[in-house]
Each structure stands twice: as structure tokens, then as C-alpha cells.
Amino acid sequence: MDYEAVQVAEISDREFRLFSELMHERIGVFLSPAKKDLVRGRLLRRLRHYGLTSFKKYFDIATDKQNSQEMQILVDLLTTNETYFFREEKHFDFLRNTVITKIERSAALSVWSAASSSGEEAYSLAMLLADNLRPPHKWTILGTDVNSQVVEHAQRAHYPLDSAEKIPNEYLQRYCLKGVGDYDGMLTIDETLRRRVQFKTMNLNGAWSGIGKFDLIFLRNVMIYFDVLTKRRLVERMFQTLKPGGYFFVGHSESLHGINERFTPVQPSIYRRE
């Protein structure tokens, strides 16, 4: 294997377009030409793995229908996953002060964290619901992400201690455990809470069979990676998946203006299906 040749391998404009078009077709993500160096850097490890000096040869391996595992590896490498606990705090305030106060005691609340990354968003929601919806209230949370590696991370629920900065102290004490021994410097989510959150790998641009309907859907800081047509198609599917009266949350830098007018704006980045 010629490691030196692999390390200096360049990705041509044509090769970059192949990966860009593939990502758009598979998961709806648009990779601008500015991402060319990022794509090269992230895929070099796979060229080393196979002993390749051509990105086109790796593209052929990843798109081989007999090698679906490599396609998932490619998607994992080229997707960005940035998140943290209790991100965009106003959304959690709205849940606590507006949504939860109106839930009937006999109601069951279903929540979808549609781009859950490594699980911080889903577990933040779980802490808030566990604290405010005591039995006989029932609630469930589904977290999904196209990246299988971050889904596995979410299922393990181990995080660096410094990631707890925005977790309220009472939640830290009640729902988090400090790691010891091999897990020194880490925290984990209490097992009782973990059992109430389900995670699965899912492509928002693919099939949604059997996913069900939800009272709350969080799709935050995701649409910034999609073109307008993909946004429209995705948001319409979200509308159909949200129960009437349910709430749809997007990132504070995102808006449904010009994307879908069927949602009713409630607050900036918060919408309702009437």
C-alpha cells in the first residue's frame, strides 16, 4: 500500500461533483464547492483503508450496491453533527411554560428529535419531560439521525463532563451520573431515563415507514444544509407527520417563510399545525 501517494492524493472538480451529487441524492445535503477540501480530508482515511490513490475508485466502491456498509461509512464521514445539551434555551422555556401546562393528565405525549446527532437534544427533552410530567402522564421520545456513528454514541449516552455546562443543576443531580475509573471525566444519563428514549438511524430524505405521528417535532439547524426544493419536500412530510395541534421547532436561524405556509407561526422558529 502506497501511503505517501494516498496522503498527497487530490480530489478533482469532477470527483468532488460526484460526491456532492451523491449526497444530495441520498440525504438531501448540498455540498458547495467550498467543501471540497473538507470532503478530501474526511475521505482520505478510506482511501488509505483500501490502498487507493483515486477518489473516483473510492466512489465506485461506496456506490457498489453490494457494499451498503461502505455507503453508510461515506454518509457518516460527510455529515456534520454539532449539538449540545439545552441548545436554544427559549424552546425549552416554551415547552415548560406553554406546552406542558396544557397537557391533560390522561394524554400521552410523543416527541421526535428528527436530527438528534449524538443525543444531547433528545436527552435534554427527556429531562424536562421527566421533571414536569409525572405519572400518570406518559411520554416517549424518538431520536433519529442519518449518521450511524452518532446514533451509537447517543445510545451509549456517555459525554464529557464539560458538556454539562448548560444542564440545570437539579437535572444534573437527578438524571446524570459522574463517571469513575475508565469513565473518569465523563458523565452518563441515568438508565431509567435512557430507557424512555429510543434512537435509530434514519435518512430524512428516504422512507419513513412505521414512524407514526408526533405531538412535537424538532428539526433544528438542519435545513441550512438543504436546497429550497428539498426543504419544501421535507417540511411538507413533517406537516403530515405532526398531529393536529402539534408544534414544529426549527433552528433560530431558520424560517418556514417561502417554504411552507400551512404551519402557523407561534414564535420565531416555533410553528403549529392548527
Question: What does this molecule look like?
Answer:
This protein has two domains: 3-78, Chemotaxis receptor methyltransferase CheR, N-terminal domain (Chemotaxis Receptor Methyltransferase Cher, domain 1); 89-272, 3-Layer(aba) Sandwich (Rossmann fold), CATH 3.40.50. Strands 6-2-1-7-8-10-9 form a seven-stranded mixed beta sheet. The protein contains eleven helices and ten strands. It is an alpha/beta fold. It is globular and about 60 Å long.
Would you count the extended β strands for me?
Answer: 10
Count of helical regions:
11
CATH class call of the largest domain: Alpha Beta
Q: Name the poorly predicted regions.
A: 1-6
Radius of gyration, Cα only, in angstroms?
A: 20 Å
Largest sheet: 7 strands, mixed
Mean pLDDT: 93
Tell me what portion of residues adopts beta-strand conformation: 15-25%
Using the coordinates shown, work out and report the CATH topology of the largest domain. Answer: Rossmann fold
